[in-house]
Amino acid sequence: MFCYLRAVRRLCLEKILLQCILQSRTLSGADAINALRPFYFAVHPDFFGQHPKEREVNENSLKRLNGYLENLQKPGFHSFKPTQLTFYVREREPNSSSVQESFSASGFRAVSFTLHTRDLLSTVLDILNSCSLSTEHIQSLNVNSQPHKEAKSTVNRPIKWDKTYYSFTGLRDPEEEVEQAHRVETTLISWLDDNEASAVKKLKKSLPLRKELEHLKFELSHQLQLSDIRWQRSWGIAHRCSQLHSLGRLVQQRPEVLKNVKGRTVVFTDRSGMSAAGHIMLGTMDVHHHWTKIFERLPNYYKLQKRLLLLEDRISQLLGGIQVVYIEELQPLFTLEEYYETLDSFYNKLRDSRLPFHPRSLRGLQMILESDRYAPSLHELGHFIIPTVCDPATLQWFIFAKAQEARENLKRKEEMMMTEKELINTSTEKFSLDRLYKEPSVSSAQMIDCCKRLLEESLPYLQGMHLCISHFYSVLQDGDLCIPWNWKN
Fold first, then answer.
1. Backbone angles phi, psi at 283, to 5 degrees
2. Is the per-residue pLDDT at 8 higher than 50?
3. Alpha-carbon Rg of the chain, whole angstroms?
4. Pairing mode, if any, of strands 323-324 and 366-370?
5. Are 319 and 399 in contact (CB under 8 A)?
6. How far is it, in rounded angstroms, from Cα 403 to Cα 397?
7. Residue 96 above 70 pLDDT?
8. CA angle 222, 223, 227 (to 5 degrees)
9. d(Cα 377, Cα 398) in Å, to the nearest integer?
10. Sheet holding 474-475, edge to edge
11. What is the pLDDT of residues 301-357, one digit of tens each?
12. Of the candidates 217, 253, 258, 443, which lies 20 to 30 Å from 83 by C-alpha distance?
């Protein structure tokens, strides 16, 4: 009996001691950064160079997380709003946490969680636990104690009544109100109500730059006879204008090197070269010298592209007429050279195996090649995802087994694309939006569901705005409103 009482007493003392330690210790900004190093290593956009969709999601979520952490360090800042974040995590271990998670097409673990903590230590622990990352290293950090501040604050500390006091008197419990506010999930209407003014202000400020961007893009496209000018990442308007000005200066200084760009698409991205889709890539960190070399090499790139198309045809012939495609929105960003090597290796393996596919038996079907997979799969949009290391016999069995389902998915894809386009046009017109678009990581099915539910609402906030369908709430630096596709009302 006494042993039991001693054990209970020890547990109570440990609990009280832990609470005292947590109340008397805090984390500095530098400590928080050190504590989050495993998290940054798992989600940093620089590690997702070949996966533009996941990179963009992590990049935007990190911006919002950094803003949240900065607000926590501001003295006297008390207006904390629950912040929902989504990250793609590079670790592939199974996760036992209760946070919402799924897997992207590239195999990364997608983790979604909501922050509503009011101190750095709790926030850091929440982030690490949500991503199933270890928190043991936090104990070794030099956490600052604040005994003097605590001692001073005890004099004016408000009285903390027992819960029964509020039950008996009928008065409102302030702690319960705070907890209830934290539990309330952000709704579309409430978020738009809180952020409309900020978005309108940023949008108005960006309007002159937006006009300049459209003018520069039109002038360069017309002058160089380009098919299009794009950006791989969601850089701000000012950044995009700067890139076009830089290209314009090169056109004035070295017009002869751009004679071979007619009919092509220029994409500003992280590295220079030619993409697997045949687009001219201009690295935003490269100088004119590097860009000039790319333009001078275009004739050689065009020759390699012809060889690549021939290689795709040969693979198609070996696989019963199935078409080999490269889908920019779904696949990693390959250079033309990298993609050619991938195709060549796959072709040699197929040629040696001599699979017995009947000629043209798989015409109308599509497949993409992935280098970071080990088992074939069928995408919901109808194309086969084939690993470059896939065993030929396994490949043959899988394609035969899934051919009919693939044809049905492709047919559904066409219908879905038409529905998505109609809903975007209808939503843009109903809400008088200046622009409605989605992030590459949002599927057509998700966009359709989002638009259908939007059309059931009355949203005067959206008039004249730029609305981006994403995985989280955010106001971009140029005034674009980002809302999650699965918003709550």
1. -70, 130
2. no
3. 28
4. parallel
5. yes
6. 10
7. no
8. 45
9. 8
10. 435-438, 466-470, 481-484, 474-475
11. 999 999 999 999 999 999 989 999 998 887 878 899 999 999 999 999 888 888 878
12. 443
